[in-house]
Amino acid sequence: MKSFKPYEIHLEKRPEWWKVRLPEIKEQLKLVQKGRVETILRSKEISAVYYNEKEYPPPKVRWPTAAGSGNPDSFKTSGYEPQGVMIIAGVHGAEPEGVAAVLNLLQLLETGKDLRGKERPFLLDLLNRYRLTLIPCCNPDGRKLSPDHMKGVSPEEFHRISQGVWLDGSTIGWAKSKEFFPLPLDKVSFPGGYPNRDGYNIMHDCAPGKLYTGEAKAILALAEKCQPDLFLNLHSQEHESILCRPGTFDYAGNIRRGNELSELNWAAFRNAGFPASVPKGSSQSLNLNTAAVMLTGTLAMTYESTTDCGLSFDQLLESHYLMLETVLADGLRKRFAPRNER
Ligand SMILES: [Zn+2]
């Protein structure tokens, strides 16, 4: 298999607490004591961490069957109290902001302070009110090739780092990269941190009945087991931050609930002075979120953090905190996935 070297670029020095490299993720996982760490894909060393775990029997039926029955709750053997929240980061390895956020959440959950040594009692209290399943990095292959952050990176360079570079030196680009499945690695000088080492995009390799990536299989198997009420997929982009509305291919109830949360998050960001895009439209994309919905009926949402927009490292982290506080506080008021209210 063709191997590639990490992308070379000179960037602003990151603070010590901005941990996003594979050995740093491993070290952070070793410190987990209150939660439980489980390797979910040994070949890629992908781990999940559980907090406030709950014993529950395996469902007698899978969600697609339960959903068509008179009792959709028959799938949900974990019950609704507390609700389950699954947070996954680094599906696109070039997008490290979510990875940094999840490692800080782990430290917060373990010690009451994040990796900066700062307390965030409101967030910690909210996190403790849910069953949590956290995957700090879903695409170690892409992460390994990618820089620690994207602050100060030009739009052109952003796409070279993320989606890669053809052999002739031209940039592959974002939407263009999706025309290849997998990306033909013999035709690139750098594959970008977007796909895994086989050139597959884990986010979009999700056609029911045939999954090509072990990563997507492992994430979805975990989702089916944990029965999350909210499946939150952390990504980042060069533009302003946005908690994206659910895609078109979803239950009407999930779309309504997701749109509410998206709107709330936008208002919270606007009040806090964080750069945020106005939520509008719905993506037609069929992706990992769609598959999680099909398997579990969960409310699946993607958060796109800005990689820059003039924010400091602290602000990049704190904008993740604000998004989580907004969403988790509202989840206590009203259930995330209205599985039996359709
Ligand atoms: Zn992404």
Textual characterization of the structure:
By secondary structure, this protein is an alpha/beta fold. It has a single domain, classed as Aminopeptidase (3-Layer(aba) Sandwich). The protein has helices spanning 22-30, 63-68, 97-111, 121-127, 140-145, 155-163, 174-177, 214-226, 252-272, 288-296, 313-333; strands at residues 36-41, 46-51, 84-89, 131-135, 165-166, 188-190, 230-237, 242-243, 299-306. It has a seven-stranded mixed sheet. It has a two-stranded antiparallel ribbon with strand order 5-6. A hairpin with a 4-residue loop joins strand 1 and strand 2 (46-51). Helix 3 crosses helix 11 (313-333). The mean pLDDT is 95. Bound molecules: zinc ion. Zinc ion (ZN) binds next to loops.
Quick summary of this structure?
With 342 residues, this protein is an alpha/beta fold. It has helices spanning 22-30, 63-68, 97-111, 121-127, 140-145, 155-163, 174-177, 214-226, 252-272, 288-296, 313-333; strands spanning 36-41, 46-51, 84-89, 131-135, 165-166, 188-190, 230-237, 242-243, 299-306.
